[in-house]
Design goal:
alpha+beta; about 15% strand; 12 strands; 4-stranded antiparallel sheet; 2 domains; Outer membrane efflux proteins (OEP); about 60% helix
Length: about 525
């Protein structure tokens, strides 16, 4: 037989106490409530469970604080990562696999193609496509239905009921179970259009961002390639000058033994050789640095051994400013990005204004429960369905909508001003690139004439030396002038080639796959 304990409200009488017998000797006053020993055990179990849960939560919080890495641990992790990276580079250098090691001839077009595949920065930019696709998927949540499944279990402290014809009829059981499906379909919302349009505009913005990254890579690879070509030419010029100076030194020593040259002439020739040898060392280091930079952009092993097959081009341009500017305004990816940024901000403003609109949706739900949803006095499983229309119209939200709309409107003005400023900057940049290209072309032509003059001067001085009309010092001066003229000539070719590449980038043409080996307009 179950031990039954009961009590009633006594209006504050201090003598009203309910003793729980030998098992629960403490006094208790409950008023209109009935408790059994089983009820007390359940309550004690619940309190015990809550206390254990609280202790577990506190332990997790303390453990989380204790597991935060300190500065020394972070430094040790960085050191381990550095060791791992060094080992990886050493292993890759030792294996020299085909995927990361280049050899043989390397053309500029092949270098650009390699960089477009392996460059890490470009691969990061291309991940924007995946982000754009995910944004489009997310935007569809504004118009697609939402299906949800929910379930619950509730235990009440006691059953409720009423007396009917002298019998107690239960109206609420202590245990209640519920499970249901709910389908909700948005019908009207001001955020639908802006969300869908924004996701598609963002995809176009991402493509323009990828184009910008490709242009940056093409420009960087072309510049690095031409740097390496220039350093190779300067190295060959200094090597040739060193070999000529060494021959001159040997000839001077013979002439001094014959009494036809002084000690000063020999010392002067030795200094000349030493100077050119120093220039050779510097030029060789510049070449190694340029190739290392090129290999890094290509994403290949720095131990690669290639021969640069393309030379520095000299292509005459005749490009009117208006034509160049029109092309730039139509094709430059940064201008396209800025235009899409304005469009995105317009949609953001439209979304902020949508908070003034009503929202309407329809829903359909199916619920299973125990007790029966139709009759809570039946402690059996039952089900019910429900269909309805939901509508809401915010009337006052503490000026939140007003503030957000003002912020988005100001940001739209910022984007529009940024686009206008970028267009003006593009016009100025195109004009500067055209002027720089014209100057570089004139400089290249003048240095070509200077190189021919220096060669002829050296030939005449060497002939005069053999005939006794010129001195060895004059020959050295002429050779130094030829070396300088050769270096200036190749530098002028480099400047002209880079001016053309910079013009193509300013016009937004590098991402089209054009190479600077023909006139810009002809290439189009």
């Amino acid at each position: 037989m179950t031990e039954h304990l009961s009590g009633k409200i006594c209006g504050g009488d201090p003598t009203c106490r309910l003793a729980f017998g030998n098992r629960y000797p403490q006094p208790f006053c409950c008023g209109h409530h009935s408790f059994t020993a089983k009820d007390i055990d359940i309550m004690k179990f619940c309190f015990k469970l809550l206390s254990h849960f609280s202790l577990a939560t506190l332990f997790v919080m303390i453990a989380g604080c204790l597991t935060i890495p300190g500065e020394s641990e972070i430094r040790e992790q960085r050191s381990e990562r550095a060791d791992s990276l060094i080992h990886h580079l050493a292993t890759r250098s030792a294996t020299n696999t085909l995927s990361c090691h280049l050899s043989g001839e390397l053309h500029l077009a092949a270098a650009i193609d390699k960089a477009l595949i392996l460059n890490t920065s470009l691969r990061q930019a291309r991940l924007e496509r995946e982000i754009a696709k995910a944004n489009i998927t997310t935007a569809y949540s504004e118009v697609l239905p939402m299906l949800s499944l929910d379930a619950s279990y509730v235990r009440y402290d006691e059953e409720l009921g009423t007396l009917r014809d002298g019998n107690f009829a239960t109206t609420r059981y202590r245990d209640r179970y519920r499970a249901g499906l709910r389908l909700q379909q948005p019908l009207l919302s001001g955020s639908m259009g802006p969300a869908l349009r924004s996701s598609r505009i963002y995809r176009l913005w991402a493509e323009a961002n990828i184009r910008q990254a490709e242009e940056d890579i093409r420009y960087a690879v072309t510049a690095a390639y031409y740097d390496a070509v220039l350093s190779e030419h300067l190295l060959q010029v200094n090597i040739a000058a060193t070999e000529t100076a060494e021959r001159q030194l040997a000839d001077t020593r013979v002439r001094r033994q014959q009494g036809m040259a002084s000690n000063y002439d020999e010392l002067r020739a030795e200094v000349e050789v030493a100077n050119f040898q120093a220039q050779v060392l510097k030029a060789r280091n510049d070449k190694d640095v340029a190739l290392t930079s090129l290999f890094r952009l290509l994403g290949v092993s720095p131990e690669s051994n290639v021969t640069l097959a393309d030379n520095l081009p000299l292509v005459v341009e005749s490009l009117p400013f208006d034509d160049a500017l029109r092309i730039a305004l139509e094709l430059r990816p940064d201008l396209i990005q800025a235009d899409y940024a304005v469009r995105l901000q317009r949609e953001a403003l439209a979304d902020a204004r949508a908070s003034y609109w009503p929202k309407v949706s329809a829903y359909l739900s199916q619920t299973w429960g125990r007790s029966d949803p139709h009759n809570s006095s039946r402690n059996t499983w039952g089900d019910e369905w429900e269909f309805g229309i939901l509508a809401s119209l915010p009337l006052f939200d503490g000026l939140d909508r007003t503030g957000r709309t003002a912020v988005e409107r100001a940001r739209l003005s910022q984007r529009e001003l940024a686009l206008r400023d970028l267009e003006e900057m593009a016009a100025s940049e195109v004009r500067q690139r055209l002027l720089s290209l014209t100057t570089a072309e004139e400089f290249a032509r003048s240095q070509s004439r200077s190189l021919d003059t220096a060669r002829e001067a050296l030939r005449l001085v060497e002939a005069g030396l053999r005939e006794g009309q010129n001195t060895p010092v004059e020959v050295m001066d002429a050779r130094q002038a030829l070396t300088t003229a050769s270096g200036n000539y190749y530098q002028s070719l480099y400047n002209h080639a880079m001016a053309r590449v910079a013009l193509q980038k300013a016009m937004g043409l590098l991402s089209s796959g054009l190479l600077p080996d023909g006139a810009v307009l002809q290439a189009m």
